[in-house]
Design goal:
17 strands, five-stranded parallel β-sheet, 22 helices, single chain, eight-stranded parallel beta barrel, TIM Barrel
């Protein structure tokens, strides 16, 4: 057999960064290279246009998953028989693990005494069980362990997560029945009992970053807070007499996976590297690692055009799988509309089945290894996350930082920065802020979201709960206001597209204007191009609209555009916009133009103001 190595592109001279940049700058037509071709993440991580051996950071990975991940499904049914039927169906059709919401205070779910009915027919030594117990972790854990013992399985065969996360529960709900310290100590004692009985594949604690993610955390903040929570649980188990290797195996790490493929992949790779660093500093063996679970982000899900959530879930699953998650839970696309439908459950489950068993992305231990972009972003993210972890630790730990308001303040600042970009559509929400379907038929009525702890007779620990944010929330609030106007008046707020000239002259800005206004629930009235101001004004009057937007070329605006503006105002146009951003706004303002719409404008504020005015006019 020949030992000659394959040399790709060996016949071509090597390309340098300088030559590549010179070619790019030709296409930029004088634009600044750094502004046009470089960006920064919300953690301040530089994002290069091109990653090469010269600018890449490649560091050793702590450990990676070496086989497929657990394909988890989530079940919110409060009725044990209904939950049991859903779980068995999911397992029969490809799922390998499942999560059950347990009853906790005012939060509905399976009662601890009904857990046996919910798990009837489930082989606990074959399918991994994950409990979501909130502050009721003690009763849920005891019920599950009793069932596992009664089933007669060998302790080492049972795989489960008991879900005790008192710190995360306090952060999310703002209430616990006892102090967080006492709850953590109680959970540590449960962990000692589980480990002592030989249940090596059962994790008592969950150190989750998901509640911080939905409160607006950046990737580094979510990682740092997950690390700080995990360290708090390690300390509690150390006090309960567990060695660090045993304690690490009693913790499940959980992070949100969203549709940003680069940063989600990097986040899960970074989680392993960072937690490996924590365990090494704690004296753990080199091969010790806690399992890592991914849950598709609630923050990215939308109520409007929920079908796009299927694409978001697919991107999240792919990224978490490539990033090395041991278990992945993809939420159905109609999750925000109440209990998911059977078809939505099936789609969410099959996303995982297809990616793992047909696309085979789990066959490679670390698919991103050696890829300059993924490696560099992972390394930079590790630095930022470790820095934030150190900040939380220096503040006295995660509980102290929650109680002082440090975490809430940091996450609020992070969300404000993201919200600004969402409002300007720099961070687009497909189907909501971009490419909205204003006439879409709702999948179903919006149901009541799961309640958090609200009616508690005895409260032992309280703080202001972290907020729950979604990227689509404010645009969807505008759409909801439009729906209310439609229901009350039989007609949505409308805007007349005053298109100028031929289709080729106005179509770009007319399309932009239609998407711009319909993102806020303001229906765009399409028109042919006008070459006469009087004709445009007559068509506007006939439309019955109260607002109009002029769409054409910059050259047309200086002549016909000004005439059309004056004619529209004379015809009773209450709100008049210009699509584009002229260098000199004074002539247009004098002609009656109230505002302009353009790339980089505050879309959300413009739409809110317009909807308020048009709603009053209706």
């Amino acid at each position: 057999m020949s030992e000659s190595k394959l040399k790709l592109a060996a016949e071509f001279a090597p390309a340098s960064d300088e030559k590549w940049r010179a070619l790019v700058e030709k296409t930029l037509a004088g634009k600044d290279f750094d502004r046009a071709m470089r960006a920064r993440s919300y953690d301040g991580i530089p994002i290069e246009a091109l990653y090469t051996p010269e600018n890449a950071r490649i560091e050793p990975q702590s450990s990676v998953r070496d086989d497929g991940w657990d394909m988890m499904t989530a079940h919110w049914e409060a009725d044990p028989e209904a939950a049991n039927k859903a779980v068995l169906t999911a397992l029969e059709r490809g799922a390998t693990s499942f999560a059950l919401r347990m009853e906790a205070g005012a939060c509905p779910g399976i009662r601890a005494e009904d857990l046996g009915a919910a798990l009837d027919g489930v082989y606990l030594n074959m399918a991994r069980t994950a409990l979501l117990p909130g502050e009721a972790f003690s009763a849920s854990a005891k019920a599950f362990m009793a069932l596992a013992k009664a089933a007669g399985h060998k302790p080492g065969e049972v795989a489960a997560s008991l879900g005790a996360d008192p710190i995360g529960t306090l952060a999310q709900t703002g209430r616990l029945l006892t102090t967080a310290e006492a709850a953590t100590t109680e959970a540590a004692e449960i962990a000692a009992g589980v480990a002592g009985a030989g249940y090596s594949r059962v994790q008592t604690f969950t150190a989750s970053g998901t509640m911080y993610h939905t409160a607006g955390a950046t990737e580094a903040q979510e990682l740092g807070l997950m690390l700080a929570t995990g360290v708090a649980y390690l300390r509690a188990m150390d006090a309960a007499g567990l060695d660090v290797d045993t304690a690490a195996k009693q913790i499940q790490l959980t992070l949100a996976a969203d549709a940003d493929i680069y940063f989600t992949t990097a986040k899960f790779r970074a989680a392993r590297r960072l937690w490996g660093r924590v365990l090494a500093a704690s004296g753990a063996k080199a091969d010790t690692m806690s399992p890592v679970t991914a849950v598709s982000s609630l923050r990215m899900l939308t109520i409007k055009d929920p079908w796009v959530n299927v694409l978001r879930g697919t991107a999240a699953c792919f990224s978490a799988g490539v990033g090395g998650a041991d278990s992945i839970c993809i939420l159905p696309h109609d999750t925000l509309l109440g209990l998911p439908s059977l078809s939505a459950d099936r789609v969410a489950r099959n996303i995982q089945v297809i990616l793992q068993e047909e696309s085979n992305i789990a066959r490679v231990a670390d698919p991103a290894a050696g890829a300059y972009a993924f490696e560099t972003i992972t390394s930079e993210l590790c630095d930022k996350a470790w820095e934030y972890f150190q900040k939380i630790e220096s503040a006295g730990g995660v509980l102290a930082a929650l109680r002082s308001g440090t975490i809430a303040s940091d996450l609020a600042a992070a969300w404000d920065a993201r919200r600004t970009n969402i409002a300007k559509r720099k961070d687009a929400v497909t189907g909501v802020s971009e490419f909205p379907d204003i006439h879409e038929k709702p999948l179903k009525d919006v149901g009541e979201p799961p309640a958090w702890l609200t009616d508690v007779a005895e409260v032992g620990d309280t703080l202001t709960p972290l907020p729950f944010h979604r990227t689509a929330e404010e645009f969807e609030a505008l759409r909801l206001r439009s729906d209310e106007i439609l229901e009350a008046t039989g007609k949505r707020p409308q805007i007349f597209l005053a298109n100028l000239g031929a289709v080729a002259q106005h179509t770009a800005r007319a399309t932009f204007a239609k998407n711009f206004f319909e993102a806020g629930g303001i229906e765009a009235i399409a028109t042919p191009g006008f070459s006469d101001a009087a004709e445009a004004a007559a068509a506007f009057k006939e439309s019955g609209a109260h607002a109009a937007v002029i769409c054409g070329t910059d050259g047309q605006y200086e002549t016909l555009g000004l005439e059309v503006a004056k004619a529209l105002k004379a015809a009773g146009c209450g709100l008049l916009y210009l699509a584009g951003k002229p260098a000199d706004m004074a002539p247009f303002a004098a002609a009656g133009v109230d505002n302009t719409i353009y790339m980089g404008a505050d879309v959300l504020q413009t739409l809110a103001d317009a909807l308020h005015t048009l709603g009053d006019a209706s």
